[in-house]
């Protein structure tokens, strides 16, 4: 899989994508990444990518011409990329969007800066995404979030092919179950006995129940879209009622 980014700060990607799982996956050829400097498509001696907005207002906007010209050139190189922009107006990025993007062969992220991007540029987008209801300095961090989430889904990226399946949001839309490691007892806090039992069937049942309980406790908004049995929905409701002081577990 090929990722690319169009940015006025292309150097910010190197450290993160060269380390840990991302670095190993790149070295193994599971994905490739290239950052393009948007200033390479400017035509003045100052390499200007921004200008004042029509109608007045605070800040500067990214000009349309460098982005249009960059995408014209980059799209002419082999397979046309899927072009992804970031905006508060965009589709909220979640695990299902990551799974959808993981089927693409080439993705190009356009990373905004300053006060935003000239609205005409969004006509080039295949996807406009939002990673949350807050403001970032630029789109580079958002692109890294999406790349990380997508790469983890690529075969071989995690080593253990079941790792991505068991993670939060991947297992029937629930948060992942609680996990523990040695020692079995620490400062009066004990690992649940069932996890020490060696009984894999019991452990699987406990993990499923724990995932339901944790989701009901921390992210009840996910329950509407989760794949739950009637018994599990009753368990989730008991957790919610207990949390709100309306009942007991």
Distance between the termini: 47 Å
**Widest sheet, order of strands:** 2-1-6-5-8
Order of helices and strands: EHHEEEHEHEEEHHEEHH
Structural class: alpha/beta
The chain-level mean pLDDT equals 94
The level-1 CATH class of the largest domain: Alpha Beta
- Counting DSSP E segments of at least 2 residues, the number of strands comes to 10
- Helical percent range? 25-40%
Overall radius of gyration:
23 Å
CATH architecture of the largest domain: 3-Layer(aba) Sandwich
Q: How much of the polypeptide forms β-strand, as a percent range?
A: 15-25%
- CATH homologous superfamily annotation of the largest domain: SPOUT methyltransferase, trefoil knot domain
Number of helices: 8
Assembly level? single chain
As residue ranges, the low-confidence spans are none
How is the biggest beta sheet arranged?
A: 5 strands, parallel
Textual characterization of the structure:
The protein is 32% helix and 17% strand. The strands form three sheets. It has a five-stranded parallel β-sheet, with helices on one face. The protein has a three-stranded mixed β-sheet with strand order 3-4-7, with no helix packed on it. A two-stranded antiparallel sheet has the order 9-10. The longest helix has 19 residues, at 200-218. It is built from eight helices and ten strands. The chain has 249 residues and is α/β, with parallel strands linked by helices. The chain folds into two domains: 2-151, 3-Layer(aba) Sandwich (Alpha/beta knot), CATH 3.40.1280.10; 168-243, Trp Operon Repressor, Chain A. The chain is elongated and about 70 Å long. The chain has helices at 14-17, 20-27, 64-75, 95-101, 140-151, 163-166, 200-218, 230-243, and strands spanning 2-7, 32-37, 50-51, 61-62, 82-92, 106-110, 116-117, 127-130, 185-186, 189-190. Helix 7 packs across helix 8 (230-243).
